Amino acid sequence: MDKDILTTAEAAKILGVSVRTAQLLIEGGSITSWKTPGGHRRVYRRDVLAQITGPAQTAIAASARVIVIARPERMADYEAAVGKVKYCVVERYTDVYAALLAIGSRLPAAVVIEAEPSDAARLAVLESLRSDPALGGTQILVVGGSAADVGMTRFIDGLPALPEAVETAIRGAVEPPAPFETPPSFPFPANEGQRLVALERSGLVDTPPEDAFDRLTWLAARSLDAPVALLTLLTPTRQWFKSRYGLDMADTPRGWAFCNYTILQKDIMVAENLATDERFVENPAVSGELGFRFYAGCPVVDPDGFTLGSLCVIDTRPRTLDDTQKQILASLAALASDEIKLRVTDRQLRRAVEHGTSRGSAAAAPARSDNKRDAEHRQGSA
């Protein structure tokens, strides 16, 4: 019989996440736990299984993606409204069927849709979304409607109220607290707890170098004439380099990371002269032996829209980037994000196949036993 009381490691194995991710969920209260006299966390199996099958699944499948379905002539207005929420990724669709495909492929935190009584297709999509049990953790935000809120569907009078509604939807999932016992010296996003769970879920930290990422940092350095290019991942305590060009060290303390500011926004962050920028003038990477003077970074995100780190270039002299160079950096960061998304999707598919195989084996075992008993019974009858 399976144990009713589990360790953190055993819970992580059932959930299919790293031990660190399980720790974040347990310590954040997403899974009820208690401490043994020796100070070790323990959880009930039923509470762990509820994370997979119950409403609390949002703690694991939390998202920062927002799907916007609107008419082409109104899309810019929606983009401007939702864009005020700094830590979400907006996907825009004028074709409702393409939007449904995007929603079905990976559940978003929120779906924003116009209430257009004259658009039968859009009304049908809205009704479909509202009745889909798989979207139990997704907020449906209907702009322009006047009906009463029902379940996860909220009706909004107009665009001015949209940013607050989107932010509430994203943070409405069970959110582990930021793992800082005391306030750190560096800034961090409002969804830092979810971001760190996503980082652990990616499985990228402390993995060996890979050509797919090394090619991107090499291209960034050569294309932008920079002596240093990095693909960074920000853990609670470290800035770890998944790929690095022109720098020997494998990581730095989190407090040194210029990327702390990059992950607060959606676009490129440029510091033309680090030595005169009040945010960085006392940074050891600026005032110390490294002597960095220029930084430009662009966020790198996972399939759920969480920013894991950045692709950045660094120089030892003050400088700037022109519009073409900024576009090059943004394009390379997008390629890094795409590579991460492919890896996460591949890992999930492998896990699903393994889970299906194990379930099939378990179901086959009783069948084999029954067949054996039937054969013995027939022999006895003969």
TrEMBL record:
UniProt-listed NCBIfam families: excise
Phylogenetic placement of the source organism: Bacteria, Pseudomonadati, Pseudomonadota, Alphaproteobacteria, Hyphomicrobiales
Basic and acidic residues: bias regions: 369-382
Gene3D superfamilies: 1.10.1660.10, 3.30.450.40
Alphabetical list of InterPro entries matching this protein: DNA-bd_dom_put_sf (IPR009061), GAF (IPR003018), GAF-like_dom_sf (IPR029016), HTH_17 (IPR041657), SinI_DNA-bd (IPR010093)
Sequence segments annotated as region (Disordered): 351-382
Pfam families: GAF, HTH_17
Name by which UniProt lists this protein: GAF domain-containing protein
Domain GAF intervals: 208-350
PANTHER family in the cross-refs: GAF DOMAIN-CONTAINING PROTEIN, SLR1143 PROTEIN
